[in-house]
Specification:
By secondary structure, the protein is mainly alpha-helical. The protein is built from 6 helices and 2 strands.
């Protein structure tokens, strides 16, 4: 079941995995991080940047953050400098953890409504999937 404690745990886990990934990537040269690896977002750097873009997009819906400055298709190029990207990742993870500390049962029970640029429509979904609601005490 998704609980406020679970949200906090996942925020902590996400931050720790990002610390490990960025520490490993820091051992690569900029050219190695930006080399096209055949991945959807092409490079390690592009993938990291897209993930930050996605986290920022979702947090704009969850917690009122500013939306990313570029669209999804441009997300891999949103931040060119690795040091800047890493600093933004650290800040985002701290802000996600701060948000997670404020999540409560009432927030989990509400509907999330947003305009999706990708779908070009308004989307509305329960924050917690209905299957979890049946098991709540």
């Amino acid at each position: 079941m998704i609980t406020p404690a679970y949200v906090r745990l996942m925020a902590q886990y996400n931050a720790e995995m990002n610390r490990r990934l960025y520490a490993a990537a820091a051992h690569l040269t900029d050219a190695e991080r930006k080399a096209d690896r055949g991945a959807f977002w092409h490079s390690i750097h592009g993938t990291f940047t897209h993930i930050l873009w996605g986290d920022t997009q979702w947090m704009s819906r969850f917690d009122g953050w500013a939306k990313p400055e570029v669209g999804q298709k441009q997300s891999a190029g949103m931040v060119d400098d690795f040091a800047t990207l890493r600093a933004r990742r650290v800040r985002a993870d701290a802000d996600i953890s701060a948000w997670a500390d404020r999540v409560d049962d009432a927030w989990l029970a509400q509907d999330l409504v947003w305009f999706s640029g990708s779908a070009a429509s308004v989307c509305a979904v329960p924050v917690m999937p209905a299957s979890f609601l049946y098991n709540r005490k």
